[in-house]
Amino acid sequence: MSLDTPDVVVRSAEANAQGYHEFSLGEFTFRRDEFFAYITWPTGSHTMSADAFLRALQRDVAWDFFYGIVNFDGVFGTMNHYGTVDMFAGRYNDAYRKAELDYYENIETPKIRETFKSILDDWTNEGFDPFASPHETGSAFGIRHGTNTDAITRRRVAAARMVNVPGDEALRSDENGHPVNRMFADVGQDEPEIEAEPGFEGEVAAFSLFAYLSRSQVTWNPSVVSVCKDSLFCPTTEEYILPIIHGNDRVEWFVQLSDEIHWDVEDRDAGGIRARVVMRPGDVCAMPADIRHQGYAPKRSMLLVWENGSPALPDLIASGQTPTYPAEF
Ligand code: PHB
Ligand code: FE
């Protein structure tokens, strides 16, 4: 099975010699061969490993362009304006800016969404799952062979209130296709006992977050487990490298629940290194709104990402009405 190509997507009529179609979006073009993805724009061109490109593209598609900036690497990426998206090359890279080789186009979200989905589907071979740890999936490389549409169209788990509250998303279980991950075999699977006051039986819910996360099949893909106004708890399981460099448009908090993640923190706009953060279980940190970051997890670990989903924040921060840091000590 593969996805239909909607009319808004500009795709070559024929596949290339390696079996992949070529795409264009505005003045950008996209081509892949056995090993690499090639991107061109009016002032330059760029090459990425096909597996790194597909892992980043998968996140951008699944998160619908996320908060702020999704850098695929130091050159290419997207910035979300929540309705439109800037697709850029070299825009957040000091050297490209100084050489005046940077370029971007602002694109209606549905058009870039459909184009990215089509590229992801056309370029993902059978056996390669861009969401999976490299240890748990096949290779992205080679001439085109088959598809993996089921893997790349997974629905992101998002609770409307809290996981396990009546009417909401079912808990992950063996029965619904979520066995305990090989790296979390030691995580207890007991669920909390609920003793509600009479009359409140249907209104009190609880679940073991550790047991829930131990059954996640994907890496670097936060799921929303609770929503309280704009406060979103988005825990995730991590292994290997966050496939994007995330440029924040708001403060976000990290709570390290298990194992270890190393973060490289850079200036959001120019890319200079600002900090290295090593987080161990129980560590809490806030990432400021003017940085970008990429995480490295040597062993599958559990991370709670706490987001403020308020749509007012990017403008408040960009106009200086709200600081880029979270607290005054
Ligand atoms: C982040 O950019 O803050 C982020 C993204 C995905 C994750 C964890 C953190 O899995
Ligand atoms: Fe982030």
Summarize, please.
The chain has 329 residues and is of the alpha+beta class.
Structure description:
This protein is of the alpha+beta class. The chain is 15% helix and 30% strand. Strands 6, 7, 8, 9, 10, 11, 12, 13, 14, 15, 16 and 17 form a twelve-stranded antiparallel beta sheet that branches. The protein has a five-stranded antiparallel beta sheet with strand order 1-2-3-4-5. Strand 4 and strand 5 (44-49) form a beta hairpin. The relative contact order is 0.13. P-hydroxybenzoic acid is lined by residues 220-222, 236, 238, 242, 246, 252, 303, 305.
Helical segment count: 6
Beta-strand percent range: 25-35%
Secondary-structure-based class equals alpha+beta
Give the terminus-to-terminus CA distance.
55 Å
Number of DSSP strands? 17
Share in helix: 10-25%
Mean pLDDT score = 95
Q: What shape does the CA trace take?
A: globular
Spatial extent as radius of gyration: 21 Å
Output the helix-strand order. Answer: EEEEEHEEEHEHHHEEEEEEEEH
Main sheet record:
12 strands, antiparallel
Name every ligand kind in the structure: P-hydroxybenzoic acid, fe (iii) ion
